[in-house]
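User: Hey, quick favor. My workstation is busy. Could you predict this chain's structure for me?
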Amino acid sequence: MRSLGINIGSSNVKITILEDNNLLFSKVEPHEGNFLFTLKKMLSSYPLPENITSLVTGTEGRRLLNINSVIEPLCVEEALKHLNYNVDAVVSLGGEDLVVYTIDKDKKIINSFSGNKCASGTGEFFKQQLARMNMKLADVNSLDDHCRVFKLSSRCSVFMKSDCTHRLNKGEATKGDIVLSLSDVMAIKVIDFLKRARIHTGKVLLVGGVTQNKHIIRFIQQRLPEIELIIPPQAPFFEAYGAAFLAQKTGSVLPEIDQLFKESRIQFKRFKNLKTAEKRVTYLPSQKGKVVAGREYILGVDGGSTTTKACLIDIETNEVTASFYGRTHGDPVAALKNCLREIKKQIKNDIGDETINITLASTTGSSREILGVFLETPAVYNEIIAHAVGTTFYREEIDTIFEIGGQDAKYVLLKNKVPIDYAMNEACSAGTGSFLEESALEILGIQMEDIADIALEARKAPNFNDQCAAFIASDIKNAIHEGIQPED
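Assistant: No problem, here it is.
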């Protein structure tokens, strides 16, 4: 007898096929927001027997499948029942949540302890920070031995993101230090949950994709030496494994692929079409002159949290003659060097081997001090001043600036070209560039360059919670599970 277990997770789809209680096949795939397409592709890639008994578990997305569904705790119990582990607790380390189940002698769940919606210390947040530093999950287990743990503001994922960015931009920590520090935060979160569950000794089973990070496991073990940690081979797809066993008793026959999905019911309030506001916006195209040999130039640099920008201005004409916009990747000095290399190429394209004089360099942005030291310049300015001067150079009458940066968003009020008041988002990244970019990429698989064109195709965008970036991320996933299209 063969049975199929499916787990629709916040980040991944997992499937498990059993044959007479033996594991025949398993697969874990990131769904990037489109779990229906991912599941369809996964099921099509394996020769399933006709009338295979199936069961689905996981997020609300499970309700969109035309097969029987079950809650995850029952799958955890069933998987434990078929494994030879006598444990006091099971810790499920998911992409978006952390749950600790306390277990009795009959391998039944007595109680469960789970966190709030905040992404702080979750696998998805960890993955986002790796992407910011241009690192892959495979890099995590091969860090330099000299890496250190720094204390991070772990109360909120956004405060922690700011901490990571500023430590990197100020040169206080390396990428390896940040990876280790984030792993430590995740380990502390697991330990806090185990303490809430009053688990101080005995055996604890760890499941979920996060268990592949050896540093988290090491930090947990160091702080809880009285507990024996067990990571089963089935850890990455544990709930799907349990669902496959339960399918033998309470499952239903898997329908044809084109009959697998139900019609969705959308609960979100919807906005008007974005195109209704198009005529009220004026876009000014970028203008760039040519570099002229022998002239005098100023180099302006903005070291931002996620991107680093540089431009070369002709003092005689006030024209931008060369510019580059690149990723910071947690290393502002390396990002600046990359900007300078690219600008040098543009200069060479204009004047060949002839020369120019760059008599002044100026920096702004979150890494302005370290870049000012590197460029040996005292011309270091905060972003409020830089925005005011840059904006009023083009339009003297402007009195209001909104700047949406990678890590923060600013409002500046000008009077006679002088900033007289300003406000910033209070640490939360909701409404900032990095949140928009990371949500589009990590959840929907959409590149930054494609966001605008895709958004303009939306017909009725859902109204998400606007108070917290982590809550919005959860709303996005719920909307996907309701069948709302990526462009909306």
